[in-house]
Task: structure prediction
Amino acid sequence: MSDKINNSDDQRTHEFSKYLRKFEVPHVLNLERGGNLENVEIAYETYGKLNSDKSNCILICHAITGDSHVAKHNEKDLPGWWEIMVGPGKPIDTNKFFVVCSNVLGGCRGTTGPNSKNPKTNNYYGADFPVITIKDMVLLQKILIDSLDIKQLLGVVGGSLGGFQCLEWATQYPEMIKTCLPIASSPRLTTQGLAFDVVARNAIISDPNFNSGDYYDFENKPDIGLALARMLGHITYLSRESMNEKFEIDRNNPRNISTSFEKKFSVGSYLAYQGERFVERFDANSYVTLSTALDLFDLGSEKKQLKENLSKSKCKWMIISFTSDWLYPPYQSFDIVDALLSESKNVSYCNIKSNSGHDAFLLSTDIESYGEITREFFSNAFNFDNKKSKNTKVNTKVKIGLTNRIDFQYISDLIPENSTILDLGCENGELIKNLSITGFSNSLGVEINQSNVIECISSDIQVVHSDLDSILLKFYDNQFDVAVLSQTLQSIKNVEKILKQMTRVAEYSIVSFPNFAFKPMREMFFNEGKAPKIKGWYGYNWYDTPNVRFPSIDDFKEFCDDKNINIEKSLYLDTINNKKIIDDPNLNADSAIFLIS
Amino acid sequence: MSDKINNSDDQRTHEFSKYLRKFEVPHVLNLERGGNLENVEIAYETYGKLNSDKSNCILICHAITGDSHVAKHNEKDLPGWWEIMVGPGKPIDTNKFFVVCSNVLGGCRGTTGPNSKNPKTNNYYGADFPVITIKDMVLLQKILIDSLDIKQLLGVVGGSLGGFQCLEWATQYPEMIKTCLPIASSPRLTTQGLAFDVVARNAIISDPNFNSGDYYDFENKPDIGLALARMLGHITYLSRESMNEKFEIDRNNPRNISTSFEKKFSVGSYLAYQGERFVERFDANSYVTLSTALDLFDLGSEKKQLKENLSKSKCKWMIISFTSDWLYPPYQSFDIVDALLSESKNVSYCNIKSNSGHDAFLLSTDIESYGEITREFFSNAFNFDNKKSKNTKVNTKVKIGLTNRIDFQYISDLIPENSTILDLGCENGELIKNLSITGFSNSLGVEINQSNVIECISSDIQVVHSDLDSILLKFYDNQFDVAVLSQTLQSIKNVEKILKQMTRVAEYSIVSFPNFAFKPMREMFFNEGKAPKIKGWYGYNWYDTPNVRFPSIDDFKEFCDDKNINIEKSLYLDTINNKKIIDDPNLNADSAIFLIS
Result:
C-alpha cells in the first residue's frame, strides 16, 4: 500500500524551497475585520519569464495546506503541489507564461502568520494573530503584484481556498485581471462543509497543548488536535467512490506503521500516517486561521447578493467543478455561473466527470479534461488579438449528426444585427462559429456533453455545461435577444417546458426541426406499417433513435397556436436538394425553421 | 433556534427508565472474537401484551446511541427514541404486538458494557472490556428471547446499527424470525463511513483523560474526545440539504450557549451543544466498543460472499433505505436486495425519497412512507392466514393508464403453471394480484414509483423499488420462468438493452404493447400529416406523451428477427371491442402480446 501513502502531497517537506523569495510590505496592513499587521512579509516563487509588455503573468492561488512551491524549478528541485499543471509545456506553460505563486497571509510557509514574530512584542503572534479574511490574503497578493510592477494579470487560477481567492480578486481588483479560473469553489461553504471545519478546529483548540494558541515556546505542540483535523479534512477531500477504490480491497489490513492513533483498518493506517506527517510541516494556529478565513468567505447565499458582488468583475471567467466533489458541490459553481450570466458577464463552465472528489484538481486522473480547459482558456486569452482569424476556418458544410447543416445560413439570416444569442444544445459550437463569421459576437452556448463543451472552450466559444432544463430556469425574462433550438426539439422530452422557458428568456426564438410528416415518411408508415426511417435526423431504428418526439410542421404550428406562441416567420427546406419549399411544406419539406416570440 | 437544539434525542436523560427490566445470563457468554464475559446482565423494556400462542412479538434493535427506552410506557413517562413509531395505534402498534427492546451488549444503558464491574476483579472493565461484535449482541438478545419462552419472533426491526442486528438475526437464527426489516443499513460500512468512525475513535482515545479506557475512578472523563466524536457523528447523520435548511438562514448567529468549544457559527453552537449534552448520558468506552463492532460487521463486499451469508435466512424481508442517506447509501441496501433475490428469498425494497439523511428513520418528516410500510409489512405478516381472501377483491377490469386491462387475462393464459414471474413496471400490482387469483403465487414486481411500491407492499405483493436497467443487470441467467413487460415497451428508451436483459433473466418473456401502426393511426398520419392520437395508450399529444417509442407489430417482429429472439406465441387484440384479431393484425389490432424466448 505504499502508493496509497506516498502521494505527491507527502513529498513536501518542512524545509522551505531554495527558490523562495520574500517581499516586505513597506507599510502597515489594515485588515478587513479590524486590527492591522506591521512588517508583513510575503513569500513567493516565480516560474518562466515576464514578457516585455508584462502581459503574460498568471497568479496561482493555493489551497489550505499548499504553499508557494507550486512546481519544480528544475529537474533537481523538489516537486511542488501542482506539478502536473505547471511547468514547461504543461497546461500552465512556464515557457509561455510568467507564473507567480505566494504563500497566503496567515500561512506558515514563509508569509507572515501566527508562527511569525510580532514586531511589537518580539514574541510569536500565537493567540494574538488577528482574524484574517480572503480579502486580506488577496490584498497582500495585490501588493506583491504591484511590487513586481505588473499592471494587469493575464489570469488568476486556483482550487478550493485558491478558488475563493480568485473570486475575491475578480471582485476586489476588477481592472487588474483579464481572466479568472476558480476551480472546485463556491460562493460560500455549505453548512456541511462549515461543520466539518468547526469540528476540526474544535479538535485543535481543545488539545491541551494548544494553550489558546501560545505553544511555540513549549516542547509539546497541539499535534494530536492538528492530526485529527487533517484526518477529517482528508475524508472530505476524497469521494466515497475513490475511498472505496483505494481501501476496500484490503480493508482489514492496515499498514504496519508506528502511530499513537488507531490502526485497525487499512484506511485507518492511511489517515494516521497522513495526520502525523502533516504536523511535521504545518502549524496548528495557521490551520485555525486559514480555515476560519474559508468559513467567513461569503459572496452571498442568495442570487441577488451573489449578483451584486460579482457585478463588479470585468474579467472573462472559466468555472470548473467536479461531479464527485461533495465538499464544494457542483451546484455551487453553477450558482456562480448563473449569477455571472445574469450580470451579462463572459463566463464558461464545465462540470468535469470525475470520481476523485474535491481533490480532483490536484490529481492526474482527470487532468486531460481540466488541464486541457486551463491550457486553452489561458492560451486563448493570451492570443486574443490573433484569435478572430482562427475562427474563419469554420466549415459551414460540416456534417453534424447525419446531415449537412445548410440550415445554419438560414438561421443566421433570421437574426437581427447585434443580437445576443443563446444556442441551446450547441454541440461543438459550429452554429456559433458560423454566427461569429457573420458578425454576431455575443453568443452563449449550452451543451450537456463534456467533450463538446471542451471543444467549444478550445474554440473560444462561451459555453455552459448544463442540461436545458436547469439552465433555462436560471435566466431572467428577455435576457437574450434570440434563443436558438436547432435540430434539438425532437430529442427533448419536455417540449412544452423548454419552449415556454425559451420564449420567456429571449425576445425571439428560433426552432428548427426535421418534419416527421415529410411525404416519404408518411408513405412508408401508411403502406408498410413500420416506423418510418429516412436518411437524416430520422435515420434511426424505432428502438434506438435518440429522438423521442416526432413533430410535423402542422403539429408545431398547432402547438404554437394552442400555447399562444406567435410565429413571426417560418421557412421550410428540402435539405437534400438544398432548396426552400413553398408548396404544402408539411408534405414536401424535410425540415422547418420557425422564428417565434 | 431552540427547536433546533431540543430534539427528542436531547430529552433523553442520564436516568434509566423506571420500566427497565434486567435479565442475568445464567452462564458464561463466549464471544465471537475470543474471550468471554461472566454474569452478563441485559437491560430491556417491553410494551403491549404477548398473545397466547406467543406469535406477536416484535424485537426492536437500537442504533449506536439508543437504548431500551424506545417509547413512553404511559402518558407520564419520558419519551423514548422511537416515539413516532412505537405505541398504541402507531406503525408498530403496541395494542397488537408485544414489543421488546433491549440495550445492546457493550452499551452503557443497563446492559453489561465497559462501564460495568468485572466480576473477576470487582473493578470496572474499562480497558479490559473485550472486542465484541454484532453477532455477540444478537446472541445476547437471543438468550433474552429464549428466557421469555418465545420460540419465534414475528419480526425484527431496526435502523443503522439496529439494521445490522436485524441482518445478523436473520442469518444466525433463521428459524427464530418470521420477518426482518433492516432500515438504513448495509452489508458493511463504506470506507468513508469507516473512516469517520476511525477519526471519532481517535478523538476519544487520544483524549488525555481517556487513560487507555481506565478513567472511571477519576474525576475527569474523556468528555472532549467523546463530544468531538458526537459532533462528527451528527454531521454524518444529516444530509447536506437538511443542514442547509436548518442553519443557512442564520449561519453567523450562534446560540448564546456556554461551551468550551467554538461557537462562531449557528451550526457550531448546535454541534457544541449536542456534543456536551451527549457526554452526560453516554460512556466513551461504550462508544469505542460499539463503533468498533459497527466497523467489524461484514456480510461481504462481493455479491458471492453476501449471497452465501444471506442464503441461510428463512424470513420474509422488507428493506428500507433513504435517498439522501450518504452514510449508509441506498445502493448498499440494494446490494442486500440483489443478493437475497439471487438466493430466491422473499424480499421487498423501498428507497424512500427523503431530505433527512441517515437520521430519516428517527424523524417524523418521512414517517408517512416508512411508517406505513412498517405497519403494513408487520400487519400482513401477522394476518398471514387471513390474507389470501383479501386478494380476491381485485378488479380485473380496473382502469390503468387509459384503457381496460383485458390483456391481463390473455397474459395469464400464456404463463405455464407454477412459474416464477417477474413483472417489470408492475405499477400498483394489479397484474400480480390477478395472477395470484389465477393461482400464481411466486411473482416479483419491479416499480419505479414510490407510491405504487407502497401500495404493492400494502397488498402484500413482493416488490422492488428500482428502475428496470439497474435491477435487470443484477439477476442471473434464467432466474425467472417468465418476465412480463406489460404496456411498458413504448415508454422505455433503451428497448434493445431491456429486451436483451429480459430474455436473459427469464426463460420466457411476455411483451405487450399498443400497436402504433393500427389503421386509424396510419390514416390520421397519412391524411392529416399530424402525430396520430387515439383513445388509449396513444391518446397523448406529441409534445407531452409519456411514450418515447412507437413500435408497430411488424417493427417488433422484425426486431425479434434481427436480434435472434424467438417468438413463441403472439396474440393480437382489438381492446376496444375486446376481441382477438387474426386478419392483418399490424393494420387491425390496437394491441399485441408476444411470448418470446
